Amino acid sequence: MADRNIVLASTGTFIGRANNADYTIIPEITDKLRCDGIELLFMMVWNDRLEEIVKEVKSSGVNVYSAHLDKTIGVLFSEGTDKDDKDALIMFEKNMVAAKIAGAKTAVLHLWGGPKSDGQIPRTKRYLSQMYKISDELGVNLTIENIPCVFSDPLSVWKELHEEYPEIRFTFDTRFAAYHDQYIDIYNSGLWDNVAHVHVSSYNGKRNEIGFIRPILHYDEGAIDFDHLFSNMPRYRGAVALESPALKEDGSINTDRLNKSLDHIRNSLEKYNIYEK
User: Fold this and answer.
1) Nearest Cα to 124, choosing from 190, 73, 58, 90?
2) At a CB cut-off of 8 Å and minimum separation 6, what does 277 contact?
3) Phi, psi of 118 (to 5 degrees)
4) In which element (H, E) is residue 171 found?
5) N or C, which end of the chain has less CB nearby within 10 Å?
6) Which whole-number Å values give the CA distances from 174 to 10, 112, 222, in the listed order?
7) Which three-class secondary structure state does DSSP give residue 196?
């Protein structure tokens, strides 16, 4: 894809509880989308068959450009016990191997999560070298996402991780950055050169009743000013993945809604000359 950013659709935009996480629809839906490939979101319910599933998706011919590792990994790390750390590392390596099998160039990781959130970062950061060794051996670019924090904030955590492992790469998520009112701070932090992947979605400006930054909304439905976000974004040459869902409660998928948002991402990147040659 010469002279422009690659635009992806996360499979989380059309796979979920409403269709029983049915991965077999990926080729059919992807064929209807105006994107360059997909970000394959590893669902927890796939764990026992993960390698089999990614092989099937790969064999369908779909371009799996990136993989979002199971979010349980970060929750386990946040428990702060030796057993949970061990289980997290086992799951991480299994997921990274699956990402490699799928053909993904990039992997997105939640390094923290759950109720205990970022409380164990001083402990978890010890594993960065080990995880990047696995990443480098597999040839899959590992990135750490700026997910919400309880005790600190994502940018402060990124800085702490960068001090521990300067070669670290990041995924920049628009919804999470806006929730912490940090996207301009991230742009100006000196860490933008370490950003290797971008997620795009919006939200209504607050957490829901159980603490999640949901519902996940499209660019024209939520509180984020995307003209401001993109017009201030530094130059960037990586991929950008849409995460706003269009899966209805009855299991149907509004591909027109997805294409409208995919077009908006591509048009914004071009309008504000984001691509770094």
Assistant:
1) 73
2) 3, 237
3) -90, 20
4) strand 170-173
5) C
6) 14, 18, 12
7) strand
Domain ranges of the chain: 7-271
DSSP 87-147: HHHHHHHHHHHHHHHHT-SEEEE-SS-STTGGGGHHHHGGGHHHHHHHHHHHT-EEEEE--
At the second CATH level, the architecture of 7-271 is Alpha-Beta Barrel (3.20)
From first to last of the 277 residues of the chain, give the pLDDT tens digit: 568 999 999 999 999 999 999 999 999 999 999 999 999 999 999 999 999 999 999 999 999 999 999 999 999 999 999 999 999 999 999 999 999 999 999 999 999 999 999 999 999 999 999 999 999 999 999 999 999 999 999 999 999 999 999 999 999 999 999 999 999 999 999 999 999 999 999 999 877 655 678 899 999 999 999 999 999 999 999 999 999 999 999 999 999 999 999 999 999 999 999 998 7
Report angle CA 152, 127, 64 to the nearest 5 degrees: 90
Q: How far apart are CA 118 and CA 138, in angstroms?
A: 27
Radius of gyration of the chain (CA): 17
Amino acid at site 58 = K
Tokens of 130: 């080990």
